[in-house]
Each structure stands twice: as C-alpha cells, then as structure tokens.
Model the fold of this input.
Amino acid sequence: MPGVTISAAYGLRGAEISALVAEQLDLPLLDRAISGTIANALQVSVEEAEKGTPNKGFTGKFFSILSPLSSGVLGEAAGVTLLNFDEAEAFRAQSETVLRDAVSTGAVVLGRGGSCVLRDEPDVLRVRLFGPEPARLAQAMSGLGIDEATARRQMHEVDSAREHYTKKLYKTDANDPALFQLQIDSTALSPSTCAELIVRAYRALLSP
Done:
C-alpha cells in the first residue's frame, strides 16, 4: 500500500505542497480523487459525493463531514461533535475504508487522519508540516489575501476542527510525533523544497 500522508495545520501550504508531491511521484492526490471513492463505497452518485448532498441519517452526516476535502478543513468540528458513539464508530470505519481503497494502488493523502489510519503501513511515509504561529499567520495572509483578524479566526476554526477530528475519532493528538517519520517546518522552507524533501524521503523508504 504505497503512498504519502501529509498532515498540515492552517497556514502551512499543505494543499500546495501535497499537489507538488503528487505531481512529482505521479500519484493521485486524495483530495481530488475522493469523490469517486466515496461514491463507490456508499453506492451513490459522484455528484452527491462531490457536493456532500444532505441526506437523511448517517450517510448525510458522513457527506457533510468528509466532503469536500478541498475545503481545507479536516471535518467540521460541529459535524463530528454531532455524531453519537455508534455513528462515530461507523464514520471512522467508513472513512478508513475510503482512505485504504484510495491508496491501495498508491496516493498522496492530505489530512483526514491519514497518519492515524495508515500508521502501521510500512510503505506509507507519514509527514507532518509545522511552523510557528506568527509565520503561519503571515503565510495565510499573503497566500489568501486576507487581514490578520480574518487569518486568526480561520486559524482557530481550522486547527480546532483538525484537532477535534483526530481526538474524537482516533483518541490521538493530531501532532503526536510518534505518528510521523518526517516533520518539516514549511514556514522556513519553500513549498518546492518541502516537496523535494518528501519525495526523496518516500523514495528512500521504498528502496531496499
């Protein structure tokens, strides 16, 4: 099960770096390939999977939390909170199936608890991007063209959602060093340099 998981909090250019890694490794990027995978897993249309169409019951909640991945938020904190115990267990099982199916032939996974789900897979490189808060804010303001107040609000919302997602579903700290083989300060290094380091580390992991 070859692949790379990338965990990135707000303002760390996770989407940009993941796209570069996927391109250089010629692997699909999960936040773009997920719609068809969800559709297959839940036996619904791709349109429903892409839009997160509200449906009744658990399937609707699954869509609302997991789709779309490209939003940059790793599951709405409120959505995860609304899951009862049985639903949380079902959500975790279904999302793990989606992730494992997607990387069965190789993929780059951005977020979604990929480092937790695939932590025991020997051919998966688990990467964490990190950086000091002031530098993360500066990158978000520059990259998104927003003011500091907006960046701070978004940082709080996204980081809280990410931390809640892994804690609620996997009883794990999203930043636990034990989850990762490689950690990179993506506020100190350019996206291209970060991608190059990840690609080299992945190829070294797979080499005899």
